[in-house]
Specification:
By secondary structure, the chain is of the alpha/beta class. The chain has ten helices and 14 strands. It folds into two domains: 166 residues, 3-Layer(aba) Sandwich (Peroxisomal Thiolase, Chain A, domain 1); 147 residues, Thiolase/Chalcone synthase (Peroxisomal Thiolase, Chain A, domain 1). Strand 12 and strand 13 form a beta hairpin.
């Protein structure tokens, strides 16, 4: 029988600099009241100049490895859409800085769905024997790519990193990953984009991140609901058997709309965005670490994950929460 993928460690890290809604309102045409009521966000953490996604990833990964007992990983996947450089990938440097010698390491770009895409890739590699212990990191520093005066994106995004260690194990063990569902629709590529700087327009000047928020909102609700329902059914769980719903932390109103459609009560939804905003690929592992640290997420809990991001990409997965101690900030 092929081995199952089991989560055995989790860590997370937020850069120390906090930017509150009030602070944003001093230089953007926005207000604490608007941001709180339209998004649920109160503050976000932002990298200082010179701090990169790779730096965030190393901090979270160190904590995840410690949480997993300190044993080295034999493969590294870094889910990010804000790499340190367009080339090479950031993951090999992160592996090197962690002292992981000669291990395969690569970046995975699926924007806010990156962590779930990474879970699926790790599970496949573990199942076919190519890896025994995978370090999966979700890290992004979108603040470095936002236009200084864009209230639409500045209000929403924050920087951060979360990481998990996944090992080969048994499907009945706590921590075992259940069904995963992924999807994409490239016809929606312009909803979330950095228009220039890639190979299509290498010399173009439009290098800031743009987002058509209203449209993204609608597609996010639809796709997260569909894929989360699909994996919940595949896992054989009734809606009221989901103990904790940990979705990509983009907007509290999106979380509310999705959980209502899934018939999951509000008190079973993990909320971390109030303190970190939308941290893209980091948001699910950050929310998992936070929910586990606060006791909302308990060993044995049936946990449902879902995400939607640029591409468009989306995904969902189930997991029975293990008895792990999260290492968080
Ligand atoms: N502060 C104050 N006012 C703002 C504002 C801000 N930060 N951003 C927009 N507004 C204004 C708009 O100009 C508009 O004013 P108008 O009615 O006079 O034209 C009004 O608020 C409503 O704007 P709208 O864009 O319709 O707001 P919204 O309710 O859709 O909220 C987002 C905007 C970005 C918060 C919301 O669309 C969203 O969260 N979308 C999904 C984001 C997401 O999930 N992204 C990542 C996916 S991976």
């Amino acid at each position: 029988m092929k081995p199952a993928t089991v989560l055995c460690g989790i860590g997370a890290w937020l850069p120390p600099r906090v930017v509150t809604n009030e602070a944003l309102s001093t230089y953007l045409d926005t207000s604490d009241e608007w941001i709180r009521t339209r998004t649920g966000i109160r503050e976000r953490h932002i990298v200082d100049r010179g701090m990169s996604t790779g730096d965030l990833a190393v901090e979270a990964a160190r904590r995840a490895l410690k949480s997993a007992g300190g044993e080295a990983a034999d493969l590294v996947i870094l889910a990010t859409s804000t790499p340190d450089h367009p080339c090479p990938a950031t993951a090999p440097d992160v592996a090197h800085r962690l002292g992981l010698v000669d291990v395969p390491a690569w970046d995975l770009a699926a924007v806010c769905s990156g962590f779930l895409y990474g879970l699926s890739a790790a599970a496949g590699l573990i199942a076919n024997g190519a890896a025994g212990r995978v370090l999966l990191i979700g890290a992004d520093a979108f603040s470095t790519l936002l236009a200084p005066n864009d209230r639409n994106t500045r209000a929403v995004f924050g920087d951060g990193a979360g990481a998990v260690v996944l090992r080969a194990g048994d499907p009945d063990e706590p921590g075992a990953l259940g069904p995963v569902s992924l999807g994409s629709d490239g016809s929606l590529r312009e909803l979330i984009t950095i228009p220039d700087g890639g190979s299509r327009h290498p010399a173009g000047a439009d290098r800031y991140f743009t987002m058509q928020g209203k449209s993204v909102f609608r597609h996010a609700v639809e796709r997260m609901t569909e894929s989360a329902s699909e994996v919940r059914r595949m896992a054989g769980w009734a809606p009221d058997e989901v103990d904790c719903f940990v979705a990509h932390q983009a907007n509290q109103r999106i979380l509310q709309a999705v959980s209502e459609r899934l018939r999951i009560p509000a008190d079973r939804c993990a909320i971390h965005l109030d303190r970190a905003g939308n941290t893209a690929a980091a948001s699910i592992p950050l929310a998992l670490a936070d929910a586990s640290a606060s006791g909302q997420l308990q060993p044995g809990h049936r946990t449902l994950l879902a995400a939607f991001g640029g591409g468009a990409t989306w995904g969902a997965a189930t997991l029975v929460w293990p008895d792990v101690t999260p290492h968080f900030v």
